[in-house]
Amino acid sequence: MIKKLHLIAFTSIILFGCAGTSNFNSAKIDTLPELQTEISKTFNSPLFENAHWGVLIKSLKTGKIWYEQNSKKMFMPASNEKIPTTASTLITLGPDFRFKTELLHNGTLTDSSIIGDIIVRGNGDPTLYNRFLKDPKDVFRIWAEDLRSLGVVKITGNIIGDDNAFDDDHIGYGWSFDGLDVWYSAEVGALQFNENYVDIKIFPPKGKGDSILIIPNVNSRYFNIINNLTVIDSGRAYFRFNRPYGTNNIYLNGTIKRGAEPFEFTPSLTNPTLFYVTVLKETFEESGITVEGNALDCDDISGWNSEQADLNLLAVRQSPPLKEILQGLMKRSQNMYAETMVKLLGWNENGIGTFRNGKRVVERVLKGFGIDPDTYAYMDGSGLSRYNYISPEQLVKILEGMYNSEYKDVWIDLLPIAGVDGTLRNRMKGTKAEGNVRAKTGTISNVRGLSGYVTTADGEELVFSFLVNGHLVSTKDTEDVTDGVLKIISEYSNSN
Fold first, then answer.
1. Pairing state of beta strands 249-257 and 3-4?
2. Which of 23, 224, 382, 402 could serve as 335's disulfide partner, Cβ 3.0–4.6 Å?
3. Whose CA is closest to 105, among 317, 298, 310, 297?
4. What architecture is the 100-173+270-320 domain classified under in CATH?
5. For the packed helices 82-93 and 322-332, what is the interaxial angle rounded to 10 degrees?
6. Which residues of the chain does CATH 3.40.710.10 include?
7. Average per-residue pLDDT in the chain?
């Protein structure tokens, strides 16, 4: 079994320190005031005396507030930022929207050749990856088969990626520089392949004569793996990698113990468009099609015009429906998907996918939920930025709005389920919260968030948002608080 090396999980920089757990009252809670007292004791644990909690728990049926603490104040939301992003995308585009990518040429098609260039033009489809395909290159192989069926065995020109549906700001505002080489900070673009990173498996040597095996999930000349690992038979093993900014050189450093279990790590790559067309060119060549030109980003071609009229359509790729993509965004907390959605909203509204254009759409949707644009700070789509600020009350308004929208069932299905899947798959197991709580997690350094829905023992549906900023304890300690509160709510019956 391959062990995934989690340097940082989702949008989290995990802190290990100040170990401790919260003790929850195991006695039966018979009244709402008793429940509120227990919730208050939990959120005011001495472990968090230097932190700031923002909490709102509210009945979806009656609108009654069951508990609140600093609910109107601003907090960094971490990946709870994906709640306004995803809600706005679903409301604006609907669950059945599909990304479209076109394969075109600008020359002459003969019996055996395309005299000219191949152009691939897209609007951000993020699904060319093994979560949606058996192999990330499957679409490229289909396109190669389409060309071969036309008799094409040679392309005299270049393979050009037209990414002008989106601008060239590939990372979010305020993202931490020292995390840009890791998968969760993958760049975003109008052409995206393999989620703009590479999964690399390392198999330590088993015997004395064996070597380390390093196997990427995509073989390509686009990136280089520089192995500086040392094999040891005893002592402490450690591993780290880095990809210097602006390069696709992946350096492996550290020591690997002989006979150890295999593991996997995932560095991001720079320039998604060039990665895309490089692998496309390589796939054509593997399929027996000679490409005489180069793989090019259209931004490197002087005077490139995305609206040129002399292009001939060869093939069209439509993505799976948006609801399936948004499920991956929310359950996995996939940052690149979230940033793609903001750009997509901008492209859909204004013809150019910029964050600013997309932000205007998000602000319009949130205003429909009763949240004015100047009352929060929406600075990226995913929550990696520490410039984002929103209140628990505002998150609850979005969750209420989606619960009462025409897309309620689709929306609920997007959220991780406690003890079942996504970022909550290992939490609240063996409690009445398991299979009950549906909520979005969020984690960056010193910040945690959990917002969603929970049902009491007698069937009353509640909406909640828990945000904590400035904590100096472990991830486990924050989960003890949030999950403990949801456990006692799940057990509570208002009819006692």
1. unpaired
2. 382
3. 310
4. 3-Layer(bba) Sandwich (3.50)
5. 170
6. 15-95+323-491
7. 94
